[in-house]
Amino acid sequence: MDENQAPRKTRRGIYLLPNLFTTAALFAGFYAVLSATQGRFEAAAIAILSAQILDGFDGRIARLTNTQSAFGAEYDSLSDMVAFGVAPALVAYHWALGELGKVGWLAAFIFTAAAALRLARFNTQVGTSDKRYFQGLASPPAAAIIAMGIWTAHDLGIEGQDVSWLAAFVTAGAGLLMVSNFRYLSFKQFNLQGRVPFLLAVVVMLGFAVVYLYPPLVLFLMALTYAISGPAWTLFRLRRNRVHRRREPAA
């Protein structure tokens, strides 16, 4: 290169495609809050569900198109905080927790603060933690417990004021699970690009059919089962270790 030739400047910018999905997820979370303030709780729950679907796409698209970036990772975390931290807490507050006064807003704040701590811990452990597992309940399924629970109750004609204490317990409990040390399967080891057994395709098809029967209740039960799997697996391992130690011969 000619010594007098100026070096090329690095082009600055962001990757558009994955960040479009992140922006859409952010908008869905924002729309959920607006819907809740207007008393449209079913629309708010569906908006949070839409944010979950969009959030599942942005990272995968970035990896498939080789458009991963530090900006995208930070933007995704901020979007998750709004869609899965602030929005579910405010939707729950407008639906039921507001009836409890200080207890209600405290339960909502516990969920929001836990989501922020969960995301901060996850970001600091990237590259060092076992990718097969999450430490603590991830924020999307925690948000699903609240959103799908509200959708189910609304569909069954249950008013938030009638189950306000239960809503507070579920909201705060989901928040505490996010900052717990329970391990949850991340399902990141599944390769969606590779070949899979035909039986798995049949199972996926049946899964969609079951969800279609009653979407809010089925999705709520799925999210609740996943949330319980962490403590249940931990208790199972502790019990197995105790039995194993008892069977070991004394030295």
TrEMBL record:
GO molecular-function terms, A-Z: CDP-diacylglycerol-serine O-phosphatidyltransferase activity
Keyword Disulfide bond: no
Enzyme Commission number: 2.7.8.8
Keywords: Lipid biosynthesis, Lipid metabolism, Membrane, Phospholipid biosynthesis, Phospholipid metabolism, Transferase, Transmembrane, Transmembrane helix
Membrane topology: Multi-pass membrane protein
Transmembrane regions: 12-34, 103-121, 133-153, 165-184, 196-214, 220-238
GO CC terms of this entry: endomembrane system; membrane
Cell compartment(s), UniProt: Endomembrane system
Any one Pfam family match given in the protein's UniProt record, by short name: CDP-OH_P_transf
Catalysed reactions, as listed in the record: a CDP-1,2-diacyl-sn-glycerol + L-serine = a 1,2-diacyl-sn-glycero-3-phospho-L-serine + CMP + H(+)
A GO biological-process term: phospholipid biosynthetic process
Family (UniProt): Belongs to the CDP-alcohol phosphatidyltransferase class-I family.
Name of the protein: CDP-diacylglycerol--serine O-phosphatidyltransferase
Protein source organism: Allochromatium palmeri
